[in-house]
Amino acid sequence: MSTNPLAQDLSTLFLRDLDGLRREIELYPDDAAPWAEVPGLPNRGGTLALHLAGNLRHFVGAILGGSGYVRDRDLEFSARDVPRAEMLEKVAAARQEVESALAGLDPAILGTDYPLPLGGRILSTRLFLIHLAMHLTFHLGQIDYHRRAATGDATSAGVIPLSALGREVLAA
């Protein structure tokens, strides 16, 4: 694990939210439900799951961790009817690559420019990793809403529990 507290905290958040993404996908009742169109929602849950896995595998796993992953962003948004088992494999790969990349991250890298320009801008690696964590959580909320609207099931996946972040307080 990185000796940098920020990298450790970011890793904790990424892994918590990727575990939440896995739980959301598992709560869809069948392979068709993540692909259901819901009026008023711009993306299907399956599309967002593929996008999140590809996004993190590219920007964290490949660029920072050297995983060798090659992203096909267009496919993330055009693929349909991908079975949940395949989505879960992609999320598991993203989780492993993010964990590995952040564990091996040289703390000095956080203060340097991210290796690629993003949206025509140069960002620090630290700021871009924070952005990616927020992007993951934003889309995770959209998936939760899609799943509930598409299935009528209000069951919570408990995707962002504080219990995954800190130490438990022992009762006296």
Explain this structure.
By secondary structure, the chain is an all-alpha fold. The protein is 55% helix and 0% strand. The chain has 5 helices and no strands. The chain has helices at 5-27, 45-62, 73-78, 84-103, 125-151. α1 (5-27) packs parallel to α5. The longest helix is centred in the last third of the chain and has 27 residues, at 125-151. The chain is globular, with a radius of gyration of 17 Å. The mean pLDDT is 94.
Task: Summarize the SSE layout with pairings.
Blueprint: H1 5-27, H2 45-62, H3 73-78, H4 84-103, H5 125-151
Helix pairs in contact: 1-4, 1-5, 2-4, 2-5
Q: Between the first and last Cα atoms, what is the distance in angstroms?
A: 32 Å
From N to C, what is the helix and strand string? HHHHH
Strands, count: 0
Shape: globular
Query: What does the oligomeric state look like here?
Result: single chain
β-strand amount: under 5%
Mean pLDDT: 94
Query: Which architecture does the CATH hierarchy give at level 2?
Result: Up-down Bundle
The radius of gyration computed from the alpha-carbon positions, rounded to a whole number of angstroms, is: 17 Å
CATH superfamily: dinb family like domain
| Structural category | mainly alpha
Major β-sheet, in short?
Answer: none
Count structural domains: 1
CATH topology: Four Helix Bundle (Hemerythrin (Met), subunit A)
Query: Which percent range fits the helix content?
Result: 40-55%
List the total number of helices: 5
